[in-house]
Specification:
heterodimer, A: 613 residues, alpha/beta, Pyruvate-ferredoxin Oxidoreductase, domain 3, Rossmann fold, 3 domains, six-stranded mixed sheet, 20 helices, B: 332 residues, 2 domains, binds iron/sulfur cluster
């Protein structure tokens, strides 16, 4: 008895439940399977900062959104078409985001009076009309799971732990996904606990069969795989993993071994965790006593000839500030990754924001310029990390690589570069003592990188100003002037090695949208939709935030209006105003700890354009 | 490796003019370190001196080796990075009581507990010299300085106790006015495989002159201190007429014949803790020399061992392996 398949082009599902309900796992499994089916996808996990917020409370709601389709997509979707809610708190905090007429699958097993009270609800949203206008599918998933596992001899608590797999089974049926990838995954995951393989597999299959047998849904959907995807090899990638792989690849392309000195901090910790697994690539990771020790060990390692790296988030970058200045002064290569989160102070540790741009550019004592590069999306994390390594080693400078929580934990298919497209940029350490000075510079103004162990090249570096020629400590006024200008000119010179960013759209028009970082998916979707409607809108997305690439002024001059959407109070807009005083940049700010939605951007852009006429 | 030459102390001198105050205890330490390097027979290119900020931290500029004069308090962390990145290097940290125990206290304890193979020489002058005379974390209570005009109310750290507590595998103490003792002590430290913490009592002639005089002056030194030597009885005094032995949790004075044999390689640091407690008792001598010397695996050793074990198991990682993993699919 199988239902008729209804074809859909794209679907957005949001799984929401209590932190303990395993929604992140459900979402990731759905994502992995969907990638294997051949859909394009983008995901957005949204979890609370409190790992153990009271069960059933609104503060403890954890969510995972996945957007998949049969064509190229750029965002995890604006409004979900399906909401899977495991308890009242999850339902009440999420239903309003759903598309009109969307499907809500609710676990009624968690809707007792006590559950409603935990969610601070006076009445039951399932019966009080709250959900009118949506297609609500009620199912006592707790009960169904217990029935499915009745004869397994597991305790009630253990049985209920499997309810997310029951739910996943139902959703697999609804979107005609195969169960095999998850069944295989369970076998590996619980290799040592066969009873858990059995329990979760049974729950998954029971959920799937339940969907089929009872025809819970009026129709079943199919999202055909992408057929026009560019040829090549793909893998599903999360931003933090992409950065980790990119950093190691970048070091290899420089002919160096990487050293990561770090300290755990949300949402950057995964990078350290991924790199700790890469020991057969000669990757050294040190989890240090604090953020400062993280960057300081990396500086020490760079001095000794490895490529030093450190990973952190906003508050950690603040702690690393003084040491970053030391790396600028000693002109040692170093990659500092900042996975941004909501600030200031501890702020919103698990939410997204782009508010560390100005900190990255200017947050150091003295005249202390360093290059800043930003990832656009999970699939861009690798290239951006390699680029950060290239600049660090070719220009002998610390580089800040900006990512954010949305990129870090989001996932999408990543088209792997062909190996021959990864061009090496080998580092050359001097060995000849004849006329050696640590401050001899190449044509890019990068200084000599002599490493300890090299006879005859003994030299001292440090935080005190150095003589431009000998490298000895110097308090000479003219020398300080020269060294300040040299350090600045070296960084500005990087722009000769970076391209003018490509335009998505025509070179002139009514509206130019300038973006950076993780706004990429939403700005691109919004701009392309407007282009389809005949609006002369163009997107300029920037990877290099400092130095700014050549050719920007000419681009800006080609448009009536230039708008800069950012998840901050207009930080890139401020920088651009400073650098291009003749142009009017209109900031569009969002400070909600959530990414932009394509539709809100489009609405804003349209309003801007109407305004003019 | 190029041909190995036997270097002399002067070979380790850089061409930079030494700029400490005339009479400062730092001069003696500089020359003792240079002689120590010559006597243990290292090559200049394999030596890295790392320092933080303070009078003592100018030290790397005066050494014709590799060196980093870094930022306040962070020398231990930077040195850890140097040593882990290249375990072949001889890494020395030069720090002071302010740099190493105040702003850098955290990195100090953690680098010691991790047993990074580096020599940490802490110049203790119980004062901030470079900022011109403020009390430090080792200044005695009551010390009048510019920031404690009515006497310091802070209880001080005892550097040796701190290093023992942090699990340092080598802990020793020496003084600027006894170059022989300092060279002997630094020599043992240099041969130690692991974190070696050496406190040097260093006289700051300008801001805390003679603060160790009651123990270091020739006339009183033999009575006021005891030089601990591994495998030898704990005897002291001008005529070696006094001994020390342990009585419960205390150290007591006894005849030289009754004196206990000193063993810094004892697994438990208890005896060393008891000896350092004598610092607080005016009737007892202060212990000098090696208080602890035990063997333990080093951080960099363990890290590189893991790298080889995993590489042996999984094979040398190629760039391609990083990207093209098992879960790759192809679109044709
Ligand atoms: S201020 Fe004191 S410690 Fe500093 S150089 Fe002068 S005498 Fe030495």
């Amino acid at each position: 008895m199988s239902s008729e398949l209804i074809r859909q082009d794209e679907v957005t599902i949001r799984f929401v439940g209590d932190s303990g309900d395993g929604m992140q796992l459900t979402g990731t499994q759905f994502t992995e399977t969907t990638a294997k089916v051949g859909n394009d996808l983008a995901t957005f996990p949204d979890f609370p900062a409190e790992i153990r917020a009271p069960a059933g409370s609104r503060a403890g709601v954890s969510g995972f959104q996945v957007h998949f389709s049969s064509h190229d997509i750029y965002t995890p979707g604006d409004a979900p078409s399906v909401l899977v809610a495991m308890n009242p708190a999850a339902l009440i905090t999420n239903y309003m985001d759903l598309q009109p007429g969307g499907i809500i699958l609710v676990n009624t097993g968690a809707f007792t009076d006590k559950d409603l009270k935990k969610a601070a609800l006076d009445s039951n949203p399932l019966t009080d009309g709250t959900l009118s206008g949506f297609r609500v599918i009620e199912e006592d998933i707790n009960q169904r799971t217990m029935e499915a596992l009745a004869d397994m001899g597991l305790g009630k608590k253990d049985v209920l732990r499997c309810k997310n797999f029951y739910t996943l089974g139902m959703v697999y049926w609804l979107y005609s996904r195969p169960m095999e990838p998850t069944l295989e995954w369970l076998k590996v995951k619980f290799a040592k606990k066969p009873e858990l393989i059995e329990a979760n597999s049974r729950a998954l299959k029971a959920g799937y069969n339940h969907g089929e047998l009872l025809r819970l849904f009026q129709g079943r959907y199919e999202v055909p795989k992408v057929t026009d995807a560019p040829k090549g090899h793909y893998r599903n990638i999360m931003g933090n993993e992409g950065v980790a792989i990119g950093l190691v690849a970048g070091a290899k392309l420089a002919g160096l071994d990487p050293f990561l000195g770090s300290y755990p901090i949300t949402p950057a910790t995964d990078i350290l965790q991924y790199m700790a697994l890469m020991k057969n690539h000669n990757v050294i990771t040190c989890q240090m006593e604090d953020e400062i020790a993280g960057i300081c060990t990396a500086i020490g390692a760079s001095y000794a000839g490895r490529l030093g790296m450190t990973t952190t988030s906003g508050p950690g970058l603040a702690l690393k500030t003084e040491a970053a200045g030391l790396a600028v002064m000693t002109e040692l290569p170093l990659v500092i990754v900042n996975v941004q989160r909501g600030g200031p102070s501890t702020g919103l540790p698990t939410k997204v924001e782009q508010s560390d741009l100005l900190q990255s550019l200017f947050g150091r004592n003295g005249e202390c310029p360093l290059p800043v590069v930003a990832c656009a999306c999970p699939a861009d994390a690798f290239d951006s990390a390699v680029e950060a390594c290239r600049i660090a080693t070719q220009y002998m400078t610390p580089v800040i690589l900006l990512s954010d929580n949305y990129i870090a934990n989001g996932a999408e298919p990543w088209k792997l570069p062909a190996m021959e497209d990864l061009k090496p940029f080998p580092v050359d350490h001097p060995t000849d003592p004849e006329g050696f000075s640590p401050y001899t510079r190449d044509e890019k103004l990068a200084r000599n990188w002599a490493v300890p162990g090299t006879p005859g090249l003994e030299h001292r570096v440090g935080g005190l100003e150095k003589d431009a020629k000998t490298g000895d400590v110097s308090y000479d006024p003219d020398n300080h002037d020269i060294m300040t200008e040299t350090r600045e000119a070296k960084i500005l010179g990087i722009r000769d090695s970076i391209p003018t960013p490509p335009l998505n759209g025509e070179a002139t028009g009514e509206l130019l949208v300038v973006g950076w970082g993780s706004t990429y998916g939403a700005t691109r979707a919004a701009v392309e939709r407007m282009q389809k409607e005949g609006v002369k809108a163009t997107l300029l997305h920037m990877r290099h935030l400092w130095p700014l690439p050549h050719g920007l002024l000419e681009i800006f001059q080609g448009f009536d209006r230039v708008v800069v959407p950012e998840m901050n109070r207009g930080q890139l807009a401020k920088l651009l105003k400073m650098e291009y005083p003749g142009i009017t940049f209109e900031p569009f700010s969002k400070m909600k700890g959530k990414p932009f939605q394509a539709r809100e951007l489009k609405a804003h852009f349209e309003e801007l354009l109407e305004d003019k006429s | 490796m190029s041909e190995v030459q036997q270097l002399k102390a002067k070979d380790f001198k850089s061409d930079q003019e030494v700029k400490w105050c005339p009479g400062c205890g730092d001069y003696s330490i500089l020359s003792c370190v240079q002689s120590t390097l010559a006597s243990v027979g290292v090559q200049k290119e394999n030596v890295v001196f790392v320092s933080g900020i303070g009078c003592s931290s100018r030290f790397p500029y005066y050494m014709d080796t590799y060196g980093i004069h870094s930022i306040h308090g962070r020398a231990n962390a930077i040195a850890t990075g140097v040593k882990v990145a290249n375990p072949e290097l001889d890494v020395w940290v030069i720090t002071g009581d302010g740099d190493g125990l105040s702003i850098g206290g955290n990195h100090m304890i953690h680098s010691l507990r991790r047993n990074v193979d580096m020599k940490v020489v802490l110049f203790n002058n119980e004062i901030y010299g470079l900022t011109k005379g403020q009390y430090s974390p080792t200044s005695p209570q009551g010390l009048k300085t510019k920031t404690s005009p009515y006497g310091s109310v802070d209880a001080p750290f005892n550097p040796i106790q701190l290093a023992l507590g942090a699990g340092s595998t080598f802990v020793a103490r020496t003084m600027d006015v006894s170059p022989k003792h300092m060279k002997d002590t630094l020599g043992i430290a240099a041969e130690h495989k692991g974190a070696a913490f050496v406190e040097v009592w260093q006289n700051c002639v300008i801001f805390n002159h003679d603060c160790f005089k009651g123990w270091t002056e020739k006339a009183v030194r033999d009575e006021a201190t005891i030089n601990l030597k591994a495998g030898e009885p704990m005897v002291y005094g001008k005529d070696k007429d006094k001994g020390l032995r342990f009585d419960g949790f205390k150290v007591v004075i006894c005849s030289p014949e009754e004196a206990a044999i000193w063993d810094p390689s004892e697994a438990s640091p208890a005896a060393a803790f008891m000896l350092i407690q004598m610092d607080n008792d005016p009737g007892m001598p202060r212990p000098m020399g090696v208080l602890r010397q035990v063997e333990a695996p080093t951080l960099e050793g363990l890290i590189h061992e893991q790298l080889s074990t995993v590489t042996d198991k999984r094979g040398d990682g190629e760039l391609k392996d990083l990207l093209y993993t098992a879960d790759v699919w192809e679109v044709e």
